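Researcher: Here's a chain I'd like modeled. Treat it as a single chain, no partners, no ligands.
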Amino acid sequence: MSVIGTGAAGGNAPTESGRSDGTGARQLVTGGSVLAVALVVTNAGNYILNLLLGRWLSPAEFADASLMVTMMLTFASISVCLALVTARFIGIRDAAGDVGGSERLVRTLRRVALSVGIVIAAVVAAGSPWWRDIFHTGSAWPFVILACGIPFYLQCAVGRGTLQGRLRFAPLAVTFLVEMIVRLSVGSGLVLLGMGVDGATAGLALSLVAAWVTVMLFRPGLSRARRIIEVGPVDASPGTSTDLAGVRAYAAFVSVLLVGQMVINNSDVLIAKASLAPFDAGLYSAVALIGRAVFFLSWSVATVVFPVVALRHAKGESGHRVLAGGIVAVLGIGSACVVGALLFGGPVLGVVLGPDYSGLSGSLAVYALATTLFAVASLIASQHLATGRIRESWVVLAGAGLQIVLLLLWHNSIAQLIGAQLVAMSFVLTAVVISHFAPYHGSAFGQAALDGPTADITKVD
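Model: Modeled as a single isolated chain. Structure tokens:
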């Protein structure tokens, strides 16, 4: 999707198909709903694959396969950073009518993603013998196989960020569905053929390649893009150095929030494994695995809200109504998950994982409640990131530190671990809400670089 003739005067930008860019309420609800359903299906498929691997592989093999997924999720922080940076800057330049600047930025970010991906892949593949010894895996080959997909994964992130920034939520949803379908079908098929961990990892790597191919298929044709650029008012001064400085500064801003999210989402499981008995640690891992689904489901809302707020901010408009609608949606998702966990969580876990898990309804419901509070706080922080404001992201990062402290103090039982997180997430949400409403004097650090030469930096939400 490319934008023609959109300046600060506003109005919804026409797309390649001549339709609105989706900032209207109906388009946002439709696109967001499609993306939300796709992410629900994607998460369900990934959970099914995990359950199948748990049944088909030995405990040691399953641990190796889980390690490959964990490594991929570690690189996901880089992927999400690239996607958010791309989404914001594409939205800003498209809103200003600078389609040429958007295309140049996308090409630059693709080169960055490819370079970073190749370096990471080389480190993972070349160091595979050492990773095998460090993590006590049965073979070094899974690391080599996974490394083959990393450059495609980061390139895919830039493509997804472009779709997100241009509010093309239906194609964005398709990329996630294709990734899940390939991962589930190829991974499970190769395991059934006797390839074990290597087969599961090959399915993971090939799913990243498939997602990248799908993203590339949704790129507009070069001839079409050229015609749009000729018609639309393009800024004659590209400001390349300013653009790159803004990208670097904004990537650092996004990293603050992503580090906070990564610590909050994973530190409890690590501390549980270190402090609880193996049986209780296994129960807690099951609670965390299911409970964190609240955050990943609600992230579809943030995916919709982020580019819309960035686009409206670039036009000098407020994004508070969009944020309010997003908060209502996240609270709705979280409330449904809490009630569902309380009523059905334990029995469902008992059927799927075994009778030892059937009494976890209460723990799962409280964990889902804590995750809901975290999801709302993350949504507010990401909305402010869309306008170049980082204060709320620092609050989330501080909350991650508080969670670690509380978990180190209260870790003798599953109830203590979950209670510590509920306290920490209550603090995070309260602090983020206070920061949201507190006066904000001046522009964010580096705002001029962040918004680029075509943006209006006199307005800060």
